[in-house]
């Protein structure tokens, strides 16, 4: 474009005529003339601040520059060989870090693509960094989009970097001294620079909020852990204390601008106690977040780092994935505290409990508490295949979960022993069903294997013995996108059932009820019928004391749970030498 054409186009834009320029550019031109008093015909040399001023700007942005540097280096590699120059400017537009080809140093310096150059719009006119700062948006200012004639050969693509409070902190820019004519040639540069800015914000948020929960989001399960779109930091009460800029788009796309200080449950069906469920222990596709406007996102929670080393006793005070292992029940709290202490060790754990009591859930929690980025391998002992064991033998270090060791036959035992001989970098967690442990099935397991699996044996109580039944019900109800409650009658009915399938059966029953309920209150007709007992125990008195304990020695409740009448309970109590209320 010739200089006279450029100046006359600016003139026409100022007179309100349509010239085909992007509106963002036309607006910036108007600001340059009407607000900053600039003249496009007057050549503006590059503005470079003094060394002392540059040092001051660098110090102010030190932390962010340190975080952004590795992102900048990666981006530079991505555009290597294409003559791009990379700039990091602070919020005032001063270039505080720079990557460029040293062969073109003199040209770059003359063009202002250099450390210390000032690209604020009121000084440099319409330009990538300056317009990005004014609009807060990613922009490409391509050739004749620039206001000043000295800049019109350049093509600059810039994206804003926001700090954790949502304030513009810096601008990442890729520029070319010479570029092809169509602006669309810079679309790829735009995508790269936006993605880099997003990653710098993410790294900055992680570095600044180590003592808080961080919840990351993605619209795709595959990218959730490797390249999430946005994140927020949350304090103990679930208030948002920090964010990446993308969180606004994810949580408030219609422009309800303020996220900081709001509670996460205002935006989605989630509260702080649910975060441990969104940690790495569960597959990403199961970690769905329901937003208040009905949209779904995948979520990945990262526990506060300092809290992991503390050893609190009360279950509610435990951090990370164990926090939701149980509610108000001293027996569960004791288990969680023990597991919390054993988690950082290599002691093999044997989790014993009836089906559906949460053995695998607990194993995954232990895995998440261990070193990050490790595999969770599962071997189902009842259908053990050599190829599967071989796959694990060749796989990465991590946790090996052996489900149902009572089902191991001789061949399976030999395979596992051989695996354990060759791999000492696997944390072993095994599970066994309660009935198997009681009936002495373990005796069929060779001692040299049994003692390698049963370092610490942890017994998980069946649901009917748990005192936190209501807590668990509420927790499972919260998994639904619907806002539903239980009527008192439905809650009492569920509380009186025996639940041979334990938490798994309860979760399914609630899922059915949530699907069937028409309004927001689940009542008796919405509940599926009880499944009946699948283990007819040979001696029901075995469990009686624990069951009485769980029901606060209310004999009618115990009778309902066992499906017998109250006099049967009294008779059994006498037989077992149990009497009166404790
Ligand atoms: N504390 C909990 N909070 C919410 N859901 C839970 C909890 N514990 C277990 N569950 C859910 O209950 C179901 C059964 O849990 P899990 O698979 O861990 O049981 P299990 O004891 O390993 O069963 P099995 O012996 O039959 O393999 C799962 O859907 C799990 O997500």
TrEMBL record:
GO terms, molecular function: ATP binding; sequence-specific DNA binding
Listed name of the protein: Acetoin catabolism regulatory protein
Alphabetical list of Pfam families matching this protein: AAA_lid_14 (PF25601), GAF (PF01590), HTH_8 (PF02954), Sigma54_activ_2 (PF14532)
Keyword set, alphabetical order: ATP-binding, DNA-binding, Nucleotide-binding, Transcription, Transcription regulation, Two-component regulatory system
Organism the protein comes from: Roseibium album
UniProt domain Sigma-54 factor interaction: residue ranges: 325-515
Gene Ontology biological process terms in this record: phosphorelay signal transduction system; regulation of DNA-templated transcription
InterPro entries with a match to the protein in the record: AAA_lid_NorR (IPR058031), GAF (IPR003018), GAF-like_dom_sf (IPR029016), Homeodomain-like_sf (IPR009057), HTH_Fis (IPR002197), P-loop_NTPase (IPR027417), Sigma_54_int (IPR002078), Sigma_54_int_dom_ATP-bd_1 (IPR025662)
